[in-house]
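# nightly structure sweep
# worker-07 picked up a monomer target from the shared queue
# config: single-sequence mode, recycle default, output format = structure tokens
# input follows
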Amino acid sequence: MIENKIAKPFLKWAGGKTQLISDIEKALPAEITQTNFTYIEPFVGSGAVLFWILNNFPNLKKAVINDINEDLINTYKIIASSPKELISILNILQNEFHGLEGNEGNKKLYYYQKRELYNSRKEEQIGQAALFIFLNRTCFNGLYRVNRKNEYNVPMGGYKNPTICDKENILAVSNALQKVEILNGDFEQTLNYTSNNSLFYFDPPYKPLSETSSFNSYAKDDFNDHEQIRLRDFCSKLDILNHNWILSNSDVKGKNINDNFFDDLYSGFNIKRVEARRNINANPEKRGILTELLITNQVKNQNYVRAI
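# output follows
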């Protein structure tokens, strides 16, 4: 009965959008749910919004996902094409890792050996995907961070007996991904996959709120202000072409009232500030509720105000 199981994100992910889905739902253009449409997510990450769309919108004609992270996209492709082989390897990793419970030194040694193997890129695609999931489930807070050499450098987390192999969900995700086209590359290439009724959801690496809060070393090249501006230009192009889009980003103005970076950048579009919980910060006192931006080119309701 795996086919009837609802697919959910198979990764822990810093900045995952599960908590914002109700706000995203309110921002959806009404016509999207009333006729066939194409859903496009150029920065897929853990796919929280993707799986919500796949599970709840029967009028979805096609979904397209993309990410610059080659190992992430390889993992999506392996789950779609070879879920049982992936599950076999994950089971081995899970049994070996859990077998070291109670011996912290050996657990750390095992983790860092697997991280080194992952960074060597010597594994076949299925093995690399298994290592990607293993590291994600056992690292600190589900972070994905690389250095300039594109080496994953997140330390081990403190989880006791983490779930590394979720067989039922991997099979459910594989089933859901059969109607999804999976791309690896720059976000602008997704324009080639639109239909007459397309909805884009953008969840790019967030603009950091401070010099010490940057978790956006997601690829060896940073997603800096120039990239944020290039993304705005792409959104403007989509608007001219009559495609619907929704975009999330950090609320830098919430940190500094004089920082109008996004208010100026998306002037003319509709900006809403929504509450989100941030659980990752070196200082525990700085974790908690903060505001994030939800920007759309559709006037949905009076809670979305046109930026001026």
